[in-house]
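Quick one, tokens below:
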């Protein structure tokens, strides 16, 4: 089968999915009780090659690897929240080292981070109104800290990929531009999250074009624009946005993002790595396996495999 987007074949990219289709890792009450084993089995059934790590996953790397190997899945990334801007660099670095060790033991390569110092997204407050704006000194703390842990990852042959995120100090395209300008391109790579950037009011295609050489990890996340507009107008929290269906997957006709030009840019610039489907949806309203298969079918049509 021939796809629409060239240069993103099986030899270049792997397709992953996050467990946030099955439960929410930021807001554990968004959950209908789906266990780990069902989650990863459905990921494999839907046709994915890997997944990120959720809070229900085994914490013993040997146990996790055995369960994933049984289903021919690999770890696309673990997550590390950083807190450099509030003076918690030492604690952040120690936690990062622990996650690097875990990643080594599950044969992973990419480790995803986001600065949650002063973040509004976990709070029951309007996500747009209260996201932090970093001072110059706080930017220096962040970029310096990221370079430090980026070197720790690089020394082990791994890649630190920064995840811009709603409700944080690195939310918009302008924020991403500053982060990329202030960090070492060999140590700090960019995770492009299409949904978070569109949610923030920016065009993910523009960021893909601007920073294509720095992008080493991708989250393919869609948004329902009408819900995002309501989040702004009604001053909703990030949790309320999720509960009302702000996010969905590629291939959903309700989604606002055209992924084909974004993927084309990545293909043209030699992208190699993970393309990870993500949609933080309420599993009581959106059947996880249905939406995982929807996204995989869409990617088959676009990529040709």
């Amino acid at each position: 089968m021939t796809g629409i987007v060239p240069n993103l074949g099986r030899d270049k990219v792997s397709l992953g999915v996050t467990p946030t289709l099955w439960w929410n890792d930021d807001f554990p009450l968004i959950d209908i009780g789906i266990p780990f084993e069902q989650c990863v089995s459905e990921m494999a059934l839907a046709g994915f090659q890997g997944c990120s790590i959720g809070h229900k996953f085994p914490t013993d790397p040997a146990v996790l690897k055995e369960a994933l190997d049984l289903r021919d899945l690999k770890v696309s990334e673990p997550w590390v929240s950083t807190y450099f801007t509030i003076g918690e660099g030492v604690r952040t670095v120690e936690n990062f080292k622990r996650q690097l060790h875990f990643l080594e033991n599950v044969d992973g390569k990419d480790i995803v981070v986001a600065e949650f110092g002063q973040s509004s997204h976990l709070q029951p407050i309007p996500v747009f109104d209260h996201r932090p704006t970093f001072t110059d000194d706080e930017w220096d703390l962040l970029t310096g800290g990221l370079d430090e842990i980026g070197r720790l990852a690089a020394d082990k042959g791994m890649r630190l990929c920064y995840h811009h995120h709603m409700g944080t100090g690195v939310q918009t395209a302008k924020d991403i531009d500053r982060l990329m300008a202030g960090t070492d391109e060999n140590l700090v790579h960019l995770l492009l999250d299409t949904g978070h950037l569109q949610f923030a009011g920016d065009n993910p295609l523009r960021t893909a074009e601007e920073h294509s050489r720095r992008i080493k990890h991708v989250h393919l996340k869609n948004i329902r624009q009408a819900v995002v507009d309501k989040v702004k107008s009604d001053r909703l929290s990030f949790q309320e946005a999720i509960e009302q269906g702000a996010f969905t997957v590629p291939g959903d006709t309700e989604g606002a993002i055209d992924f084909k030009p974004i993927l084309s840019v990545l293909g043209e610039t030699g992208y190699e790595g993970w393309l990870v489907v993500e949609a933080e949806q309420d599993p009581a309203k959106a059947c996880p396996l249905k939406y995982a298969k929807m996204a995989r079918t869409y990617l088959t049509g676009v990529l040709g495999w």
